[in-house]
Amino acid sequence: MPEPQSIGALGPSALANVMNGIRQKQEQGVTPGPIDDQPTPDEPGHPEYHRRRRAEWALARWETATPPRYRRSDATHPDVQQWADDVAADPDTAGSLLLTGTTGTGKTYQAYGALHRIAAAGSTHPYEIRAITAADMYGLLRPKGSERGTEEELRRLVKVPLLVLDDLGSAKASEWTEEVTYRLINERYNACRPTLYTSNLPARAANGAPDLTSALGERIVSRLSEDTRVVAMTGTDRRRGGRAA
């Protein structure tokens, strides 16, 4: 088999013929086709690639912050899903969410599910979360409740971009609990930081029945009512084999 030869080895006439052919095609309007050099969703540089990386990082943080019992949580309620999507899109305008309902109706499950959904969205907004029960929060903020000091602990709760406060209104009401709760909710409200609350009590109840107003005070519920969506969870106690809505 003869060895391949370069165009230059064939002599000036061969090279001239090739160049002439290229010139004729250009004159006829024949141009090279487009080169597809854009990155695919699996390659760096594509928005979807970076969204997936952010989601992986956020989901790892979610798993670390979530108790083992709730690591399979999923936001199945449409209103909870919508709130989570709004937080992922723009936390400054999403507002807060209050899940109410009797014991065992799935409020905490939905709360951790919402955090999971926000993480999975891979938002460009910082994914920093804190989940704490109201009882643990009050214990942390009492004198000598933390080595960091009560004011530093309150500051951390106020500043975290996304906070879950579970079992709001469950502690015995006092001037101190009302003041601490008001400071937390008011400062997060003023900073437009989304908070997810759960409570066994309704925001307001008729006929003098216990509610968050009686447990927390009017000024706290007033703050909640302005920018907080309320979702009533219904159904029987799922821990006893019932199903919640």
From TrEMBL:
Alphabetized Gene3D superfamilies for the sequence: P-loop containing nucleotide triphosphate hydrolases
Domain IstB-like ATP-binding residues, every copy: 93-222
UniProt keyword terms in alphabetical order: ATP-binding, Nucleotide-binding
SUPFAM superfamilies assigned: P-loop containing nucleoside triphosphate hydrolases
One Gene Ontology term of the molecular function aspect: ATP binding
Record protein name field: ATP-binding protein
Organism name: Streptomyces sp. JL1001
Region (Disordered): 1-52
Top-level taxonomy: Bacteria, Bacillati, Actinomycetota, Actinomycetes, Kitasatosporales
Any one GO biological process: DNA replication
